[in-house]
Amino acid sequence: MMPNQAMQELPPYLFARIEKRIAAAREQGIDVINLGIGDPDQPTPRHIIDVMAKAIYDPPNHQYPSSAGLLRYREAVAGWYQRRFGVELDPKTEVVSLLGSKEGIAHICFAYLNPGDINLVPDPGYPVYAGATQLAGGKPYVMPLHDKNHYLPVLEDIPAEIAKQSKMMFINYPNNPTGAVADIEFYHKVIEFAKAYDILVCHDAAYSELAYDGYQAPSFLQLPQAREVGVEFHSLSKTYNMTGWRIGCMAGNRDAVEVMGRFKSNVDSGIFQAIQYAGIAALEGPQEVVGAMRRIYQERRDAAVAVMKQLQWEFIPPRGSFYMWVKVPDGYTSAEYCEMILEKARVVLTPGNGYGHYGEGYFRIALTVDTSRIIEAFKRIKAIS
Ligand SMILES: *Cc1c(COP(=O)(O)O)cnc(C)c1O
After folding, report:
1. pLDDT band, residue 26 (cuts 50/70/90)
2. Which mutation among 14, 231, 237, 268 tests ligand 1's pocket best, with the greatest number of atoms within 8 A of CB?
């Protein structure tokens, strides 16, 4: 039996392919340094685990949660937005819980796109934006991110014809895979554009707490008009080292929050409540853990930047996220270079073309292993260069 057209065209998720290759190498006893994976290596902070441990014994938590999330969890999200960004959210109508932000990012496409509707997606970009668009029967239209524009899309370059057929737009800052950040000015322009063409803006802020050199990423929702046109996706995954727990949220536009809640109530049954209590502990508990995490990545980034300059690699040091986006040396495609490095240096880099057409000619490094391993990886690469 054949799956539908969209499924037939959908390649396996990028990391599923890379993980297979790593597993094969490790089976042969090869020490592979994986700079490919966007998954924090640090454990979830202890006070969060402790809350979870207690909550699992409480029988009401064994039942179906609500798919919108405990009001208490949504209040914790609203409180965090208030403290962190000065943004006031109504937890009842402007916040919905998600089983990790990936879930919501994918499902909002199903809730908003009619067959053939255009979704404006960044390229290079998180593969879920285009993948879910296609699964939902929509058409991704690529907004190229170039280094000369600091990896921000140029909205003026989107033809009016395309903009008129567009229903949604994804943006993501601090950015995966480029490490770029966006300021409020850019969000202003996005709002103007979205208003002019009646487009739902989806800002993916998974890396909002991961910035360097004292930079603090703004929230899209800091602009009063943002809520008229858009939503923001947040995740506890990267901020609190909780990727495995599957907890995030979407906040902003009331209609979109209602639509997502209704969509989800037909598709899933929400987040295990014990995890929601752990999420509350993360958002309301001591935030020093976030500063500590930031310092760890800062140290790794600084160490990596120093060696990468010696290697004369071409890159812009990232201001946010835990990624570095680097030009492939002349004479290789992204895939060829990453294959060569894996084979000869036993280091996993992610080929840029995995993030879209405009990612070709780049590779991505994730700073999710400790500094000594990062240095070792560069030593190996240097040795074969
Ligand atoms: C990691 C990541 C997410 C977060 O995913 P979760 O499902 O919340 O774990 C979202 N967007 C981007 C761009 C990411 O890299």
Report:
1. confident
2. 237
Ligand 1 centroid from CA 144, angstroms: 20
Query: Measured between alpha carbons, how far is 361 from 44 in angstroms, rounded to an integer?
Result: 35
Name all domains of the chain by residue range, CATH numbers in brackets: 5-44+288-384 (3.90.1150.10), 46-284 (3.40.640.10)
Atom of ligand 1 nearest to the CA of 125: 13
The pTM assigned to this predicted structure is 0.96
Q: Say yes or no: CB of residue 101 within 6 Å of ligand 1.
A: yes
E strands within 244-359? 248-252, 323-327, 347-348, 350-351
Rounded mean pLDDT of 320-329? 97
Cα 383 to ligand 1 centre (Å): 34
Q: Which two tokens stand for residue 208?
A: 């909002």
**154-211: per-residue pLDDT in tens?**
999 999 999 999 999 999 999 999 999 999 999 999 999 999 999 999 999 999 999 9
Maximum separation of any 2 CA atoms in the chain, in Å: 61
Q: Is the CB of 239 under 6 A from ligand 1?
A: no
Does ligand 1 have an atom closer than 6 angstroms to the CB of 235?
A: yes
The reply to whether ligand 1 has any atom less than 6 angstroms from the CB of 232 is no
* Bridge pairing between strands 248-252 and 230-235: antiparallel
CB neighbours of residue 374 within 10 Å: 24
